[in-house]
UniProtKB/TrEMBL annotation:
Cofactor: [4Fe-4S] cluster
Pfam family, one: Fer4_12
Transmembrane segments: none
PANTHER family from the UniProt entry: PYRUVATE FORMATE-LYASE 2-ACTIVATING ENZYME, PYRUVATE FORMATE-LYASE-ACTIVATING ENZYME
Keywords: 4Fe-4S, Iron, Iron-sulfur, Metal-binding, S-adenosyl-L-methionine
Name recorded for this polypeptide: Radical SAM protein
Highest taxon of source: Bacteria
């Protein structure tokens, strides 16, 4: 069987064009494909060693936009790319290692997204090699990793950063020299790296700096906007309009200032990360912490400080896990054995951490309080099964009694845990699986007697309006008739907020 080559795709523009790319790559090992060739630049390359998909009109429009990418143009480029999707992806075979070379990340995110989306339809491995000039040393904190949407769906990301190399050279290396050195390193790596080492069962982001010394950075830690003394992992979803991200954060902070009459708050300076961040950068975090610290209502009350094992936090989930902007805190532990367990997929994204105290968690969550407060949002606890940590959640409420708290639960817990939290939890999202005990047992390995008991308890206490009961269609386990039967049983109990949906099956 003939060994498959690495397939390298790259975007060719007239600002920076990976000169003599074919000469730099070993074409006996690597196939090279150019996307969107610019003007006569293609003629400078050796014919027959790569494929070009050209569209001069779009290229001309691109140049009119200036150095930074105009996001209004993205639909044109996406439309162009989709026209050639068939011939582009005909070059890719099953289980191939596909490497996308990126120089201008803003301009090429659409291509990245389309490669990533196609990976869901066709089993190949997708890797990114990105050249840039960013403050990566702070960050890993600075939005650099976050600008790659759904980075955890990519097999590996390799970042070649000019600024770090310049700093490591103590001023002796200028930007042009740094770029050329990093290009050479990138080409050597594409020729020699065994990308099969970085397939999606292992998450990697690699930074090349300090004379090309490479080191592994935990993918989820790379997305932490602020690295605290504890080890809480975060995921921040990519905003649909990154160029509006900074403005929206500032408007929300300004609304918080007016709502709480915070005196002496100066007008914020223009953000230097505009159009590259898709979540809060260190400046946003600093401003948010400062505002919360100046609000007397946000000062903690005396409370117990228990510990719990927390998988991580999904931040800025808007109108998903409850109203407004919310932080979803995921506990690790669960006693059920669901056939399509979402938590298994979550653990791959947010590795299990050490035990975290209530104070450590709340100190970490405070940076999002500004945005939650003015949007009517709050904290949602999920997992895992959050009600196994009811004492921990109660301590969070005791410490910050005005925080809005929601729970996502199976209700397969002792009623005492529900009773402990019932007076102050704003809403309960309860996934009942199915009211038929045989279906429930087949799917979870448990009986549903506790679930039914807890639903009846909440109704008897008069809190049924806070219940949103989720009734899923579970492929291979229940039918439409089963779902309808479950809904009728819930209505007879007095439960009226019923969410019927279809499980998105996640296989382990």
């Amino acid at each position: 069987m003939t060994a498959r080559k690495t397939k390298v795709f790259y975007y060719l523009d007239d600002y920076f064009h990976f000169d003599n790319l074919i000469d730099r790559l070993d074409v006996s090992k690597v196939d090279v494909y150019s996307l969107l060739g610019s003007y006569g630049r293609m003629k400078a390359f050796k014919k027959g060693l790569f494929t070009s998909y050209e569209n001069k009109k779009i290229e001309e429009d691109f140049f009119q936009c200036g150095r930074y990418y105009d996001f209004d143009l993205s639909s044109s480029i996406e439309s162009y790319f989709k026209q050639h999707t068939k011939e582009i992806f005909e070059q890719i075979q099953e289980e191939d290692d596909v490497v996308f070379l990126i120089e201008d990340i803003d301009a090429q995110l659409r291509f990245y997204d389309l490669f990533r989306e196609y990976k869901k339809q066709f089993p190949y491995h997708f890797h990114v090699c990105a050249l840039g000039n960013y403050d990566v040393r702070e960050g890993v904190t600075d939005g650099m990793a976050r600008i790659f949407p759904y980075y955890f769906e990519v097999d590996s990301i390799h970042i070649y950063n000019e600024k770090d190399l310049i700093e490591a050279g103590n001023g002796e290396t200028d930007r042009r020299t740094a770029r050329q050195l990093l290009i050479e390193q990138m080409m050597q790596d594409v020729n020699s790296i065994h990308f099969s080492l970085y397939h999606s069962d292992r998450d990697h982001i690699w930074f090349y700096q300090d004379g090309y010394k490479e080191y592994k950075v935990d993918v989820t830690a790379a997305c932490n906007a602020v690295k605290e003394h504890h080890d809480l992992h975060e995921v921040i979803p990519r905003w649909e309009q990154p160029d509006q991200c900074c403005d929206r954060f500032r408007k929300l902070r300004r609304a918080y200032v007016h709502k709480h009459w915070i005196r002496g708050w100066a007008k914020e300076k223009e953000c230097t990360h505009r159009q590259i961040c898709t979540g809060p950068c260190p400046y946003c975090e600093q401003m948010a912490y400062a505002l919360v610290d100046r609000n007397p209502e946000e000062q903690p009350q005396r409370a117990p400080n228990p510990y719990a094992r927390i998988t991580g936090i999904m931040r800025f989930r808007e109108d998903i896990d409850g109203p407004g902007i919310r932080s979803l805190v995921l506990f690790d532990r669960c006693e059920m054995h669901c056939a399509y367990c979402l938590n298994k997929a979550t653990v791959n994204i947010l590795p299990v951490t050490e035990m975290i105290s209530v104070k450590e968690l709340t100190d970490h969550l405070k940076k999002d309080r500004v945005y939650q407060d003015v949007s009517g949002g709050g904290i949602t606890f999920g997992g895992g099964e959050p009600l196994l940590e009811a004492d921990f959640i109660k301590a969070v409420h005791t410490m910050y009694p005005h925080w809005d708290i929601g729970i996502e639960t199976s209700f397969h817990v002792k009623t005492e845990a529900v009773a402990l939290l019932l007076p102050f939890v704003s809403f309960w999202y309860v996934d009942i699986k199915d009211m038929n005990p045989d279906i429930y047992l087949a799917y979870t390995g448990m009986t549903n007697s506790l679930v039914i008991r807890n639903l009846k308890f909440v109704v008897a206490q008069g809190y049924q309006d806070r219940l949103v009961v989720r009734v899923p269609h579970i492929p291979n386990y229940n039918t439409a008739e089963d779902v309808n039967r479950s809904k009728q049983m819930l209505l007879k109990m007095g439960i009226t907020h019923i969410d019927e949906f279809v499980y998105k099956v996640v296989l382990s």
